[in-house]
Amino acid sequence: MVYDVIIIGAGVVGGAVARELSKLRLSVLAMEKEEDVCCGISKANTGIIHSPALVPSGSLKSETATGRVAEFSRISSELGFRYEIPGALVLGYCDDDLRVLQKYADNGIKNYTQAGMNPAAGYKIISRKQLTDYEPDLSPEVTAALLLPDTGRIIPYEYGIALWENAVANGVELLLGKQVVGARRTGAGLWELSSADGGHYQARFIVNAAGHGSPAIGESAGFTGCSVRNVKGQYMILERNKGPRVNSILFQVPEPGMQKKGKGILVTRTVYGNIMIGPDARTQQSGDDSSTDMEGIEEILSGALKSIPSLNPAECIKTFAGVRPRPEGGDFIFESADNFIHLCGIESPGLTASPEIARRVVRQLIEMGLEAVPRPEFIAERRPLAAETYGLPADEVKLRVALPRGNGERLVCRCEQVPEARIIDALSRSLPVTTLDGVKRRTRAGQGRCQGTFCGNRVRELLSEKLGLPADQIRQRETELSPDRVTAAQVRAIYMKR
Ligand SMILES: Cc1cc2nc3c(=O)[nH]c(=O)nc-3n(C[C@H](O)[C@H](O)[C@H](O)COP(=O)(O)OP(=O)(O)OC[C@H]3O[C@@H](n4cnc5c(N)ncnc54)[C@H](O)[C@@H]3O)c2cc1C
Q1: 233 lines ligand 1 (CB under 6 A)
Q2: Which of 188, 353, 397, 472 has its CB 3.0 to 4.6 Å from that of 65, i.e. a possible disulfide?
Q3: What ligand 1 atom has the least distance to the C-alpha of 347?
Q4: Are residues 248 and 140 in the same domain?
């Protein structure tokens, strides 16, 4: 079969492209090397829908990321994933920082104006005295802050899973566990992709959205000179609904000379109420190494304490890391030739920019000759997962945990209070779920304080039943390798030392 379009990579960028293409009457195939979607860069990142104030102007990053905070409200209600717009504060610590804060505000206005949008973003610099109203637990060292109301947050893989479920429901064919190892032009003017298991797949158009895999695939298709550095960012997650008051997303003015390293250490709550801190920025050899280490964890912790000194590391429940594909020129790489679109170096704010990147990809495909006939049957909505029950009183939790298997109200995960009905729903959707981590990303079973110690085997039983496999063959994660991570107990030990 010759497809109209093949997308390589099932992260958020590939997912946004797949969903956009599914609005048209086309045959679309997506190939993903892992056994689930969003297992690459889209799995482990900060999850912020960024204000354009923090995105360099005059770049493809700013063109694609500006104005997305409002758009995510629509996307999240169509696709049924959590989204909040708590706004952000960029914290300054001295008089010099005031100039930096003003520069960010000017930059945001410039980005809106350049994008032809209304620049009334509500940016304002807040004095120390007023700051207490916004963030009562802020460090007394903070002297002023820039308010960025146009900043939102999501759980990135919830967005990605929702995109892919919706694209598949609208006719996109998704092959998981299919690693693309090369691309070549055939004599008939088509593209042929070869997979690691010896398969060959042909299409008229290709979209390379393979994240860390993009440079190698692009090179085999003739896109040379795309140089990317792997820059790891480490994070810590604290217990849900515990700790000091953190109302907005707290950034800091980077220390002198650090601006190029990233947006600095942030403190935020996630959409589920866990405090999250991070990331640092360290260059490493591999795009796949998501280990965490004590040096990185200590760095993010001391950075975060500069924003909120009463943070309690003893409430840490896990550490994790993501790796940015940092492009040499600093901007996203979006190249096209011969019916092939090559996306590379899609680092932050790639999550924010993904809806607009997808529209640009489709426009470019049409310019290259793709026939775009609308598909009126396109369904924009995705049914959200069966309801969460978090917030039950302790005696009710005890009762529901003890309910028999097969009762939808039975709590499979005690910490996050995840009912069996929610897990069965996740296992019965268009995307196959084969691992404990796959269930965890969809339902939150295993995301709580005990990190799956209680519910791991209960989830395993449900997976085993669904897949018809013995329970001991159900794997924790998609890849065999388990990254070396600093444990919550080790973090607590650092805290006790102090
Ligand atoms: C530390 C960190 C913090 C970030 N914070 C933010 C933020 O707050 N806000 C924001 O907007 N952005 C943020 N980003 C950026 C954002 O996460 C990325 O831009 C986005 O997730 C990239 O998505 P992607 O689809 O391009 O890549 P991926 O999610 O990596 O998807 C590519 C897919 O291709 C697959 N693949 C790779 N090679 C092959 C192959 N050969 N064959 C088949 N499949 C293949 C991979 O398995 C993967 O699933 C952050 C990134 C990092 C690392």
Answers
A1: yes
A2: 353
A3: 19
A4: yes
Which atom of ligand 1 sits closest to the CA of residue 39? 49
Q: What pLDDT score does 120 carry? A: 80
Q: Indicate which residue's Cα is closest to atom 48 of ligand 1.
A: 40
- Residue 200 among the catalytic residues: no
> Rounded to the nearest whole angstrom, what is the distance from the C-alpha of residue 41 to the centroid of ligand 1?
3
**CATH code where residue 349 lies:** 3.50.50.60
- Determine contact, residues 264/277, Cβ cutoff 8 Å: no
| 417 and 280 in a common domain | no
Ranges under pLDDT 70 in the chain = 256-262, 480-481, 497-498
| 196 shares its domain with 275 | no
Per-residue burial over 264-291, b = 16 or more CB atoms within 10 Å of its CB, e = otherwise? bbbbbbbbbebbbbbbbbbeeeebeebb
Ligand 1 site, residue 346, Cβ cutoff 6 A: yes
CA distances from 429 to 51, 432, 447 (A): 34, 7, 21
pLDDT reported for residue 494: 74
| pLDDT in the model for residue 351 | 98
Same domain assignment for residues 20 and 35:
yes
**Going by C-beta distance under 8 Å and a sequence separation of 6 or more, which residues neighbour residue 437?**
36, 446, 476, 477, 478
Give residue 262's pLDDT: 62
| Chain centroid offset of residue 490 CA | 26
Measure 205 CA to ligand 1 centroid, in angstroms.
22
* Ligand 1 center from residue 412 Cα (angstroms): 30
Q: Is the CB of 172 under 6 A from ligand 1?
A: no
User: Does some domain include residue 136?
Assistant: yes
pLDDT of residue 493: 83
- The predicted pLDDT at position 496 comes to 72
Total domains present in the chain: 3
